Structures are given as C-alpha cells and as structure tokens.
Amino acid sequence: MMNIRALLSICFASLIACQPTGNRSEDEVEQEQKYCFLRTEGTQQQDTSYIQLIVRDETASGVYNVIPHEKDARTGTVLGKFVDETFDLVWTFTQEGMQDTLRVAFTLRDGKLLRKALAVDTLTGRQVTLDSSSFSEAYEPIDCVFTNE
User: What is the pLDDT of residues 72-116, one digit of tens each?
Assistant: First the structure.
C-alpha cells in the first residue's frame, strides 16, 4: 500500500528527471508560467493524479501521472497548446509496460484545474476526450518543485 508521501516523492522525482538541462536566461524563465495540481479521490483519498505544466507562449508541456490505488498507474508527459485558459494536450504515458497516447483537455477556473471527462469509444474500447465533454474533474493547486537547470 503506497501512502501519499511516498506517492508525492515519486511524482516529484519524475518531475526533476524531466526538467531540461542547460542554463536559461532570466527572460526565458520570466516568460514561463508554471502550474502544479493534485487530485485525490477514493474512500480514503488513496487514488492520486498529479499534473505539472510549464507554459511558454502558447505551448504547454509537463508531466501527468494518474496513480489509482492497487491498480495500474499511467505515468507520462504531456505536450500541446494553452489558449484562452485551456490546455489541449497529448498525453504520452506508460501503463502495464506499454506506451500509449490520449488527448486530454484541461481549463483553469477559479484557481483550480478542471479536466474534461473521458469517454469510451464504443468501436475501439479506448478512452477518448470528446469536445462535447464537460470540464468536471477538479485538481487542486499545489506548490511546484522545479530545478533551475
């Protein structure tokens, strides 16, 4: 059984590993916006989702990990656009040792991050994000842990 502290340690370690290396100028750092959010759910808040995003101009990238209790986690990276407070991203993740992709959409609203609900494509059996889906899954803001490299 993984507790929240261990889970957050794993998330933060993956964040540090995914940070770009090299020196960046002050202008580059100032033009970036950084966002980090956490969602816990389940009867004992044992299911955890964490997203860290860096926005530069209209491009968003980062890490997105969904770690349900006693189920297979999906951990990976996101890349896409940030326009009008909405993130339209492709999530490249690993689950059960296999790599896959899924479009995910989030919006910033009242200090929180909301994700569009996922649906299942009846023809393929795969999860998808429909344009008609509502932003209904709330993530709470948390402090980001970044390196300056």
Answer: 899 999 999 999 999 999 999 999 999 999 999 999 999 999 999
Tokens matching residue 66: 């969904």
Round to whole Å and give the CA distance between 95 and 82: 26
| Residue range 22-36: mean pLDDT, rounded | 71
77 forms beta bridges with 63, 92
Distance CA 46, CA 103 (A): 25
Question: Domain ranges in the chain?
Answer: 4-19+31-141
**Of 57, 72, 88, 76, nearest in space to 11 by CA:** 76
Cα 76–chain centre separation: 8
CA distance readout (Å), 79 to 2, 97, 100, 116: 28, 21, 14, 16
| Beta strands 127-129 and 118-120, pairing class | antiparallel
Q: How many helices (H) and strands (E) does the chain have?
A: 2, 10
pTM of the predicted model, to two decimals?
Answer: 0.77
Provide the 10 A C-beta neighbour count for residue 135.
17
